[in-house]
Amino acid sequence: MPRFKTSDGITIYFEDVGEGFPLVLLHPWPTDHAMWMLQVPVFSENYRIITPDSRGLGSSDKPEERYTLERLSDDMAELMDHLGLDEAFVVGNSLGGAVAEKFAIDHTDRVRASVWIGAPTFTMDELVMNFGGETNVPFSQIYIRELKLGYLNFWQKVWKPFMSYNFHESFVRTYIGNYLINYLFEDRYARLNADAHSLIELLKGLDETKDPLDNELAKLSIPSAIVCGDGDDTRPSCEKQHRAIPRTEFLVIPNSGHFCYMDQPAVFNRFLEDFLIKHSG
Questions:
Q1: Read out DSSP for 166-230?
Q2: Cα angle value 192/58/14 (rounded, 5°)
Q3: What is the DSSP string of 39-96?
Q4: Is the dihedral of CA 77, 81, 82, 84 positive or negative?
């Protein structure tokens, strides 16, 4: 099981399969590399696929500290150093999308092209939800409050009832969709997130990111794309981001949610394949 140690002593778990130009896939909060199970077998036929677990998540270390977007971005740069990679395609979803954006800003020369899936525009307090009779409450406030009672409490009370934002109902109703959701979110992530402190610290760290990334992203010349599901609750933020960065490609995938690459993998994979070929140089 491949691991490497960062400059500040944190052990990061990653998987590395296939041969060819590197493609780094960055997973969402509060998950791990397994979220890319419908992409890795497909793209590893032509690319070298690197799927790290973010610090604080999966099988990587979960230090008792605040997690910053800058530190998560630097972790990816150090992973590429460890693997001897000068440049890569970088794709991320949600938290992973925000890390991909920050990586593109801080380490531009190492990004051939980047795709940001449901990666909300900061600041985080723009992302609100209605919950338990409360309206327009910053989602991180609700998440942190419920996570203090444990990951499974959060899953049962917050995410599971709002499943339509994460996955389209047609996916949820299928045998494989229902199985994957139960396996990932009620089994795998219940085990990996048994101690939810790192989930909370990741949210707090992101909550402290007060300057939107759009202005810096708009200055970049690297090819990029914004992708979201039509039922994704970050869609308004993605649309706002596209207005701020009009030159970036923009795709809304019908009949899908926040994890559109899982509930509509054929559509997403076809788009990503075309995008990678177009920018292979």
A1: HS-HHHHTSHHHHHHHIIIIIIIHHHHTSSTHHHHHHHHHHHT--S-SHHHHHT--S-EEEEEET
A2: 150
A3: THHHHTTTEEEEEEPPTTSTTS---SS---HHHHHHHHHHHHHHHT-S-EEEEEETHH
A4: positive
- What's the whole-number mean pLDDT along residues 26-37? 98
Dihedral sign computed on CA atoms, order 98, 100, 102, 104: negative
Please name the helix (run of DSSP H) or strand (run of DSSP E) that holds residue 103, with its range, or none.
Answer: helix 95-106
- List the CATH number of the domain containing 122: 3.40.50.1820
What is the CB-side half-sphere exposure of residue 112 using CA atoms within 13 A?
18
User: Where in the sequence is the domain holding 272, given as residue range(s)?
Assistant: 3-278
pLDDT number for residue 147: 96
Q: How far, in Å, CA of 66 to CA of 87, rounded? A: 28
What CA–CA distance (Å, rounded) separates 60 from 206? 19
> CA-CA distance, 162 to 167, in Å (whole number)?
9
Cα separation, 2 vs 52, in Å, equals: 10
Query: Structurally, how many domains does the chain consist of?
Result: 1
Point out which residues pair with 250 in neighbouring strands: 226
Residue type, 21: F
Q: What are 5's two structure tokens?
A: 């140690």
86-130 pLDDT tens trace: 999 999 999 999 999 999 999 999 999 999 999 976 556 667 777
Residue 65 pLDDT grade (very low, low, confident, very high; cuts 50, 70, 90): confident
Number of CB atoms found within 10 A of residue 236's CB? 14
